[in-house]
Design a protein that fits this description.
- There is one protein chain.
- By secondary structure, the protein is an alpha+beta fold.
- The protein has three domains: 4-145, GAF domain (Beta-Lactamase); 149-215; 221-371, Histidine kinase-like ATPase, C-terminal domain (Heat Shock Protein 90), CATH 3.30.565.10.
- The chain has nine helices and eleven strands.
- A six-stranded antiparallel beta sheet has the order 3-2-1-6-5-4, with helices on both faces.
- Helix 1 runs antiparallel to helix 4.
- The model is unreliable at 254-267 and 324-338 (pLDDT under 50).
């Protein structure tokens, strides 16, 4: 299936091609999995058929021929593909769309009045070449983005596996060894002391595992909502990184903002689960970057609904945006990390826009804007 960015590009190119050729209608047809799809159209004619099989259709026969076609007053068999599409034309030009290793398609220009000249044919050929290059480039970027996302997820899995192995399993293993040694010593007082030590050690290991579980999926986000989860995240950032984090959450209907540090406010409404999860993860990653790289002492997390959109930001008082040498291989991760690219990917998946910029007086602001129109209904407060 064509991605949203590919469809947007093809629609834009169809409008440009229509103006370039001064045609009545311009169609961009893309082959996908044995079918031809009219991915974009611009101009007068309303296309009746949007999808046709490559095999067994007149449009498919035209595509498989792979040759430019110029028709003046098309009729009979040569007009069969026009009848399939449900359009009429006085003249038609067709150029194959060739993308090495990435399928292909057709560029079709139609006129209801007058014909096409040789100059129009050359212009359509150049336009088809441009469309193929632009679409191939867009697909390469999309493939790279998906590959990078997979690498990021694999990187995260490796990190969790390492932390569980190096911290929890190693710690529990050491406690098990203590108990085994104490069992083999015929000394009740020593055994009692060892059991006490092991119980205390198990408590620390349980706390560590709870922290890992919270990082993977915070219970507060499901049970109490975004405001409570972000406030808990702020307290954890202070406990772990010594970062003074203030939260400003304005999601209530006709109610004051939630107090910083309070667990919940009865009037604070819930957002849809995907949006709440995305905001939480972006804020979480932003605070992680602040704690690791910004050399900051304080940060402000702000989430506000205004003007039909939700605005979330994290502002710190650190050393500002990273230098080029501190960016990852794609220029969007810190010191080879995947955080910033993952934040961009999360924002794109919910139709949001993510920006990084300098904060007033120094530091950095990460800002997410998500239009709320068309999103699923919000969850009522529990």
């Amino acid at each position: 299936m064509l991605s949203g960015s590919e469809l947007w590009l093809l629609r834009l190119m169809a409008d440009r091609g229509l103006a370039l050729l001064d045609a009545g209608t311009l169609l961009l047809v893309i082959e996908e999995r044995g079918e031809l799809r009219v991915a974009a159209s611009s101009g007068e004619a309303a296309v009746r058929l949007r999808i046709a099989p490559v095999q067994g259709s007149a449009l498919g026969e035209l595509y498989l021929a792979g040759q430019p076609v110029a028709l003046d007053r098309p009729r009979g068999r040569e007009a069969a593909w026009l009848h399939e599409l449900g359009v009429e034309a006085r003249a038609a030009l067709v150029e194959p769309l060739i993308m090495e290793g990435q399928g292909g398609g057709l560029v079709i220009a139609l006129r209801a009045q007058g014909g096409f000249r040789d100059a129009d044919r050359r212009a359509l050929n150049a336009f088809a070449t441009s469309v193929a290059k632009r679409l191939a480039a867009e697909r390469s970027v999309e493939i790279e983005r998906l590959r990078y996302g997979m690498e990021a997820r694999e990187h995260e899995r490796t990190r969790w596996a390492r932390e569980i192995h190096d911290e929890s399993i190693q710690g529990i293993g050491a406690l098990r060894l203590q108990l085994a040694n104490a069992r083999d010593v015929d000394d009740r007082d020593a055994l009692k002391g060892t059991v006490d030590d092991v119980l205390e050690g198990l408590g620390h290991e349980i706390d560590g595992l709870r922290h890992l579980i919270t990082e993977l999926r915070p219970a507060a986000l499901d049970d109490l909502g975004l405001a409570a989860a972000l406030q808990a995240l702020a307290r954890r950032a202070q406990a772990i990184d010594g970062l003074d984090v203030e939260t400003e959450i304005e999601l209530a209907d006709d109610a004051p903002p939630a107090e910083n540090g309070s667990m919940d406010h009865p009037a604070v409404r819930r957002l849809d689960p995907e949006l709440e999860s995305t905001i939480y993860r972006i804020v979480q990653e932003a605070l992680t970057n602040v704690g690791r790289h910004a050399q900051a002492t304080a940060a402000v997390v702000r989430v506000v609904e205004r003007g039909g959109a939700l605005h979330a930001s994290v502002t710190d008082d650190g050393r500002g945006m990273p230098d080029v040498e501190r960016l990852g291989p794609r220029g969007d991760g810190l010191e080879g990390g995947f955080g910033m690219s993952g934040m961009h990917e999360r924002a794109e998946l919910i139709g949001g826009e993510l920006e990084f910029g300098a904060a007033p007086g120094g530091g950095t602001t990460v800002r997410l804007t998500v239009p709320l129109a068309g999103r699923p209904a919000s969850t009522p407060p529990a």
